[in-house]
Design a protein that fits this description.
single chain, alpha+beta, Ig-like_fold, Immunoglobulin-like, CD2/SLAM_rcpt, six-stranded mixed beta sheet, 2 helices, signal, four-stranded antiparallel beta sheet, Ig-like_dom_sf
Amino acid sequence: MNVFHGYCVSYSGILLLGIIQGLCVLADENTETVRRASGSSLLLPLGLQKESVSYAQWKFKEHQIARYSKNQIHISLNHQFMGRLKVDNINVTLEVEALQVQDSGTFSIIADETSQFPTKFISLIVYARIENITIQSNQTWLDSIKACDVHLWCQTSEDPSASYTWRGYQNGSGAFLHFTFSPEDGNIILSCTAANNLSNQTASKPLKCKEQPTTALNPFSALRLLSSLLAASPYLLVSIILGVKCYRAQAHSDEKESQYAVNET
């Protein structure tokens, strides 16, 4: 009995594995991966003749966005595609316009059971089209090594996940690049390329290293400044003494007026 029971468990496991594999194959056959650029559109056709289906619905991430009944496509409310859905009742097609990166996800097209039409899945990936690149730079002179220290930052606002590649005087990858170069290197150019699966753009930054002289105080200027201070010091001292005397005289006058007012009272 135990042996027979063990075979039953083995057969059941094999049968379950076969069912799972069959479902995976079926899901792969009914799933289509589509890549689109931001701003483009996506067609979601029902794929059936109007006469062969009485009811169908379009979903995005399990939320209904439209349904088909009585030979008409009806757009649902309260979803992210409001104002961007276009219907074609003749060909039973739904179109999503002005695609955005956040529209990436899985759409499903579900028909009624009488049509024997399996649920179709469309996995949408929306990429932002890279159009603008900026390169910011920060350059400082290092007197200790007689060279310029450079920090560069390449960025694009269209796609935060874009990859960056540097070419030119220095090669590298990533949004940031740090290096040093000397005045003897002359004029140099750094190029940054931002790319994603849809597009790429390149921008360039010219740089030149100039030696910055140290700002030491000229001995003659220092002597002239000291002479001016010494020459002005007597006048400055007299002004301070006069100011103190005026302040004391004003305070003494105010005190007398207060005593006079008290005596009259």
